[in-house]
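Observation: inputs received (chain + thiamine diphosphate).
Thought: call the complex predictor directly.
Action: predict_structure
Action Input:
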Amino acid sequence: MEKIYSRTKLLREDMVSGFCPGCMHGTIFKMIGEVLEELHMESKVAMVLGVGCCGLAKEYVTYDNTTCPHGRGCATATGVKRANPETLVFTYQGDGDLASIGLAETMSAANRGENFTVIFVNNGIYGMTGGQLAPTTLVGMKASTAPKGRNPKEHGYPMHVCEILNQLTAPYYLERCSCNNPANTRKTKAAIKKAFQNQIEGKGFSLVEIVTSCPTNWGLDPLDALGFLEDKMLKEFPLGVIRDKSKEEA
Ligand SMILES: Cc1ncc(C[n+]2csc(CCOP(=O)(O)OP(=O)(O)O)c2C)c(N)n1
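Observation:
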């Protein structure tokens, strides 16, 4: 019989997923592992982890990684990449990490066009610490720090990271994806691969935003959370390529 699928070797075999039902981190780690194998970068990669559920990736992967203080992913990745230009460096960060406490680091690294990749997992909430309001929380969406829902007068509006970074000159590639269905999951994998290839070719800063669900902190079961993601999150955060400088070069 023809073998049509092999599990990526870049995920530990002795670990069982500890993520909540309906969480999409496991799917994303799997795709990252597959892409690294397809690009033959298994031994030439360094992942820089944010703090939060995202940071739990270190428990599951077999490749080099480091965790940095909350929000400092892009600052740390700048150092790792500049010191090791041949290494494929990427950050893996949540919305609280990247867009709240780490906004300055993210903007500054993007503005400098640093040659690394950012995987930005947007679940609209602070996951690990119990569902506090994040910069990406939707208007009206409840959070533990906004029990009546996000009120723009008090909390401002959801922040669109890709669109904000698109105001800068330097970023090379910005795409927003999701893992809500198989077709979009495949597109996410293609976006991650493209972002890594850009880095290998020395093109500069790429960011792939992945809109995901957090059933536990949204207070929904996994299926309802998927419905919320599709009906509400993807309306606020429409999927697609926001910038691709390779198209301008062509
Ligand atoms: C300097 C600092 N401030 C606050 C915290 C507490 N903290 C840990 S994880 C987290 C939120 C993470 O949320 P997010 O980045 O959205 O990631 P997720 O858990 O949703 O993947 C916070 C505030 C910390 N560890 N360090």
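Thought: report the result.
Final Answer: The mean pLDDT is 97. Residues 25-221+234-249 form a domain with the Rossmann fold fold (CATH 3.40.50.970).
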